[in-house]
Amino acid sequence: MERKLEPSAPHFDPVPAASHSAEAFIAEKRIGERIRRLRLKRSMGLVELGRHTGLSASFLSQLETGRVVPTLRNLARIAIAFGRDLSYFFEPEPHPLFRIHRRGERVRMPQSGVDDPTYYFESLAYMVPDRQLDPYFAEFVPMKKGTEVRPHVHPGYEFLYLLQGDLEIRHGEHPHSLEAGDSVYFDAATPHAYRCAGPAPAVALIVTMHQMTAHAAAERPAAARPRPVTAAAPQSATES
After folding, report:
1. In a domain, 166, yes or no
2. What are the phi and psi torsion angles at 120 (to 5°)?
3. pLDDT tens per residue across span 153-199
4. Do 113 and 178 fall within a single domain?
5. Bridge partner list, 178
6. Domain count, the chain
7. Within this chain, do residues 117 and 71 fall inside the same structural domain, yes or no?
8. Are 180 and 162 spatial neighbours (Cβ–Cβ below 8 Å)?
9. DSSP label at residue 152
10. Model confidence over 162-175: pLDDT tens digits?
11. Is the pTM value of this prediction over 0.85?
């Protein structure tokens, strides 16, 4: 008896579907863009990265532009070259830091620890966690007779741009006069102090960096790196 062949259901090769799924996943994670950012951050060319990974420069170029899909083995090679875990390429990307402080959000604070403040300040970045520098808007008022200025020190560096008025800054044993438009950058580990040198308040933008060097920062324990989100006063004038 002759057997009648039934038409079979259409068969699709699972490889193209899997390939399409992988490509979609790679595109979603923007792995190529992450590799490119890592490479440029290290000032590394494609040829140099190829030497570290054993992959060709042309392949790496296509990988960064999303024209090829990398295998996990190739990704692992790239991750090792940059000192990263393989999971780095698949975790959600952190949002780049961007924080606007509106004028109305700032708080004007007086110099602490004295009855007659010689300056007032407003932190311009108190809402930024783990910040690497502290910018302040500072107003130095004319000092009363008999008020003493005691120098102070702190680690890192300090920058000041005088917006208006006259200001005297003593760095070490040397006094210096600043006028509106002048700026100064100095080692804050040297004793220094400010004094309003005119009849009107002196207004300045101050930026302090508390890390001495990048090398010293790298040596600090990780637990010691985060800074509290507080509006700390810039040390100045009569503080010791």
Report:
1. yes
2. -130, 150
3. 888 999 999 999 999 999 999 999 999 999 999 999 999 999 999 99
4. yes
5. 167
6. 2
7. no
8. yes
9. B
10. 999 999 999 999 99
11. no
